Amino acid sequence: MKVGDVMTKHPLVVDLDSPVRVAVDLMRSKGIRHLPVVDAGAHVLGILTDRDLRHAAFLPALAGQTGLAPHRVKAPRVRDVMTWSVVTTQADIPLVQAALTMFQRRIGSLPVVADGRLVGILTEHDVFTGLTKGSGIEGEADFFLW
């Protein structure tokens, strides 16, 4: 089985200058934990995760101690809190290899690229669903992902 067989095609994305509040609302309303950050040409620049957002919640408390500009604390942009160093994969990679990468690097998703452009995203849920397909425990997938 390949990444392309189970990945989420046409994932929701966000751009660098989007307000974090907009990204949070999008993630909550769609029930997702990872938003690839792309430029106008759909090139992956980074990723915004629920972990990034939890860390960003500390910005107001740290502002006085770190000398952050007040506008960055009151209305941070995606670029201010996202993960810039993102690991990607390709659709033709074996699913097991991508899953191992995710496990070893302790990451919850991999943007899927082709010719440098985003074509999908592989999440933990996608991996679990793909690896358990035909095993008789497909219905149990949501139990393990909370």
Describe this structure in words.
This protein has a three-stranded antiparallel sheet with strand order 1-5-4. The protein has a two-stranded antiparallel ribbon with strand order 2-3. Helices cover 43% and strands 18% of the residues. The protein has one domain (3-144): CBS-domain (Roll), CATH 3.10.580. The model has no long low-confidence stretch (mean pLDDT 86). It is built from nine helices and five strands. It is of the alpha+beta class and 146 residues long. It is elongated, with a radius of gyration of 17 Å. The protein has helices at residues 3-6, 20-30, 50-56, 59-66, 70-74, 78-81, 95-105, 124-132, 141-144, and strands spanning 8-9, 34-38, 44-49, 109-114, 117-123.
Shape: elongated
Q: Identify the CATH architecture.
A: Roll
The helix-strand sequence is: HEHEEHHHHHEEHH
CATH superfamily: CBS-domain
Q: Write down the overall mean pLDDT.
A: 86
Q: Can you give the helix content as a percent range?
A: 40-55%
**Gap between N and C termini:** 25 Å
Strand line-up across the major sheet? 1-5-4
